């Protein structure tokens, strides 16, 4: 190539066409031959006529300019120009071999294209026959020898095929290889990742001492690596590090499954001056168990991927529920849960249910005899790799079974007490073979009772913990691929103080790690590579070069060619070797004074042949358009007077294409897809409107918080009374139940979103006009979708009269009202929260009408009513002022007001939960059918139905 300042010409002889520019100019300026004059007598009639349109005798200047620019752009494009300021240096006059040094470790992956482009741009400078050599800093068995001379074309092709390695650079090793080659370069170009890792400052000084040095540094922007992870039951904290501490930086970390599907994402923010930050994830335990890796979104590289192995992830423990204890603090399961909750995901139930959840460990507390069917299920589960952890107690001391690590004596041993000679025992030091080895033993822990193991030659091998007198406290034995573990004391405080100490939770957690085939002892064996990462962070099968790692060396192993980052299978299950673990990236801040530093924009090469030829083609297309227009071919589509404006517009549009190459490319990045491929995505910030952005504030509030609502009528005083009533019952719900309603809303039946409210109160005003057709249609849709409507006519002041609903026929004409009935005796509405027999409001003794229960084939065959009609004026009984004081009097005084409030609570609970307490309503009838007589014990809370004429 020929260099002209920062421009390089691949075909400089094409510029010879500029010699022909005068000839081209003359041709463009030439006019067609003059027309031959023919005498036609009839043309005398046109003498003196002024022509409307005239044809110019010469080519217009702007057409000539378009054609000239097209020719110039074509000639320049054919010369294959390259803008490569990175190739311009003060040492270009030096003749001799050029050494291209490239950092190809994992820190270079995020900006790999820029590094290789900078190296390729350097190759474009100087003579075509200049000798070129290459040095890669990531250690590898088949690294190219720097002594090998390559042509610029061959080295350019090789650079194009390079990939970053998933391990770090070793610049000291690179210098040794350079020394061994004996190469004496005339110039050195270093495409650097810009990080100090591997001795960057010393490496730059050494290169500068060998030859004139030009450096293109491209450190990763934002997070450089994921350095660590910590997990709890349903939360994960991912720690990240960056090198450049200037300003704040934001990024997102995604939690993905093994197949690349994203489950959740978390934001990480680096404050100014900070190098460390963390992304927090709160994921349900069931979803968290599916997470296999975390990676920084939009950042390719092995360092920005963290593989989550079975050692670090949250454990799953299953507790066999023996029933709810009346006093939880005396329950063994209470202490087990407290010890495991921050550490493990807990499921509970019977043995079959717990096994179905595939936990790492199952815990049984003082279960003496396991049914044969459950023994078979547990045995298979343990042999497949599970850990069965059992605690002793009175039941286990009386009888045992085969799912125990050691044989037991049929009694327990009491230590201390008035009838015992022995004192309570402390714990002895844990043996080195025990998984509890290294845990501190509290001096105040005392064991007062234990079950004793039958003497056995293998007892010592099976013992993980002992008392101070040498008797076993915890024993364990392998069963198939799993483990049987027994604590010879209770999990609660009955037999020992162990449950009160922090040692208990540590022992229990370490015992759980024996589950799923993960042996506790990790001092023998090797880890075989299963899946490994490439330099861009893509997971694939282990390469042939990947070698096993000794179990004792795994924690100290640094990723390399023979031990690439990835997943390894071994004695403790699956373990991950991550490239960025513990990384502390730091920028190279001191460069040699003689080195020439190239910035990001300065070192990029830009090939201009394509844009110039495209610009020429656009101008020629514009010229063709003008020719067609002048010929009259486009006259029907465009007025001729706008030809010049249109031509200038096309010229401006074509000129914009010159600015496209670098600036437009800078607006795109590459994103890793679930299938392991990459796609180009725009990095420009854009505002994406959220769906429903124009929703009224009332709808937003109703969607965010549960609220009661009332129909807004033309009577303002009645509206205020209804609102005060709903505020009063909302306060009662908030104080007495788990329901937390917000402030009620007034509704317009024709415009508001009714489906956002579980219960709507319609306080019917006097002489109310019939509802509009639209209101009736929207109410019908609301009731069909599961909403509840309470209609109150407030006409119950006449004592002794029955509730009259005939006045509603006109008001609710068109409403899809099902057959109604008074609330029957023992209906679930009378006990959904409180046990009540009446539904009073301001007035007592009034009927409440509900939907008549249908059969199983009906749309509402479950008997849950969605329509309630009465006249007791409940809103007045519930109403309170802003200070919580009652606003209106109630006929029956405070007792009736309390019953009215209880009805309101029951109504809301019934609307929200349906008929879940319906079975309790039928308990008396079921007991009667089972032949229960009056002498049998009954729950005094259950209603007793006395037949008519029976004893009172």
What is the compact description of this entry?
Among the domains are: 85-219 and 587-604, 3-Layer(aba) Sandwich (Rossmann fold), CATH 3.40.50.410; 315-512, Class I glutamine amidotransferase (GATase) domain (Rossmann fold); 526-577, no CATH class; 697-916, Rossmann fold (3-Layer(aba) Sandwich), CATH 3.40.50. Strand 27 (566-570) and strand 28 (573-577) form a beta hairpin. The protein is of the alpha/beta class and 952 residues long.
Could you characterize what this model shows?
By secondary structure, this protein is α/β, with parallel strands linked by helices. Among the domains are: 85-219 and 587-604, 3-Layer(aba) Sandwich (Rossmann fold); 315-512, Class I glutamine amidotransferase (GATase) domain (Rossmann fold); 526-577, no CATH class; 697-916, Rossmann fold (3-Layer(aba) Sandwich). 26% of the residues lie in helices and 21% in strands. The chain contains 24 helices and 39 strands. The strands form 9 sheets. Strands 16-15-17-18-23-22-21 form a 7-stranded mixed beta sheet, sandwiched between helices. It has a 7-stranded mixed beta sheet with strand order 34-33-35-36-39-38-37, with helices on one face. Strand 1 (2-4) and strand 2 (7-9) form a beta hairpin. It is flat.
